[in-house]
Amino acid sequence: MKGRKSETNRIFSFCMRIAACHASVITLTALLQFPAFFYACSPVRESAPAHNDGQIYIQWTKNPIQDSVDLFFFDTTGVQLLDAYQKVVPIEGQPTAGLSRSGPRRLVALARVPSGPGGWYGVRGYADLCKTSFLLEQDSPLQPLLYGEARTEGGTSMDVQLPLQPLLTHIHLRSVSCDFGTLPYAGQTFFNSWLFLSYAGAECRPLGAGDPPEPLSWLNAGALDSVSARRLPHPEMVWQTGCGEIGPKRIYPERDFYCYPGLRTCLVLEGRVGADVCYYPVPLRGLRPGKTYRLDLTLQRKGAPDPDMPVESGTVIVDCFTVPWEQETPRTIYL
Fold first, then answer.
1. What pTM does this model have?
2. Domain range 2-166, its CATH number among 3.30.360, 1.10.8, 3.30.420, 2.60.40
3. Percent share of the chain, pLDDT over 90
């Protein structure tokens, strides 16, 4: 017990020194780590020092995030001013501590999110943090930008569940086939030259902007914009070479696309049926951040002559399955 109390006091002392510190988050590295989750509770309440501040003890239990996490505590009344900020650096197997004043608080956590040249010094209230944008050019499916929010009820110790999730949505094209049945061009196949996401969300504010938030800007707004797509560190998130010839026999290309979800987002198959250029824009309605959408497509008619033109009813049969981004046991920390 004595060792636990000593360790807790050391953590608390360290937390007091950093409580007023504002530091910029590290820039993310590239490519897909699944979303992380942490839970808040106080596993060492018996050794908590007596004072009026609210203590948070963070214990990483499995597959911890290797990056630092920015924690913001805001008042829950009025303009929700910033009460405390800490950058916590998780160390596997060791607890980390955070601190805010007692009382109800809004807790926001960001991981891998660049803070800008001035760090987080401009954040004076929750409304300031809500201006933080996630940019597709800074995001990556292997190490996505993460965010999460929770409310605490106050007191010197508390239990709060706070999930961290990506703002990215994952579109997985699992299979596709093409059968024109008894139509005049029956027997022909579709040669798929390109696959891309149209109206792919490129900038989005995850906090305070609706559920889910609507993107502020898009890539491939209607037609493919290969110049803009190539500027991404991972252009394959929104644009890939096609599947080649697609006929009655179902093929399984197993292609993955990522963007911020929007109301007009479509997966577009571009190619030819005979000499005719055609497009199959598949609307992706109801997309949510941090979800995987698995698509099985069946093409039954010629597509539209323009990628921004809806196809006739019955042109594409879409079987869509929504699953969590990850299937493994969620990662947790304990506060």
1. 0.79
2. 2.60.40
3. 58
Could you count the other beta carbons within 10 Å of the beta carbon of residue 50? Answer: 5
Assigned token pair, 71: 């924690």
Q: Measuring CA to CA, which residue among 80, 289, 255 is closest to residue 168? A: 289
Cα–Cα–Cα angle for 294, 298, 300, rounded to 5 degrees:
155
Inter-residue contact 184 to 202 (CB < 8 Å): no
Amino acid at 212: P
Q: What's the DSSP call for residue 234?
A: -
State the virtual CA torsion across 299, 305, 308, 311 in degrees, nearest 10.
-40
Backbone angles phi, psi at 283, to 5 degrees: -65, 140
Which residue(s) pair with 91 in the sheet?
Answer: 94
> CA angle, 272 as apex, 267 and 273 as ends, to 5°?
115
pLDDT tens figures, 34-79:
333 333 332 222 233 333 455 555 443 334 566 788 999 999 989 9
d(Cα 270, Cα 85) in Å, to the nearest integer? 48
∠ Cα 304 310 314 (to 5°): 85
User: Which residues, 6 or more positions from 319, have their beta carbon under 8 angstroms from its beta carbon?
Assistant: 295, 296, 297
Mean pLDDT confidence for 99-119: 86
State pLDDT tens for residues 283-326. Answer: 999 999 999 999 999 999 999 999 999 999 999 999 999 988 76
The top-level CATH class assigned to 169-324 is mainly beta
Q: Are 9 and 49 in contact (CB under 8 A)?
A: yes
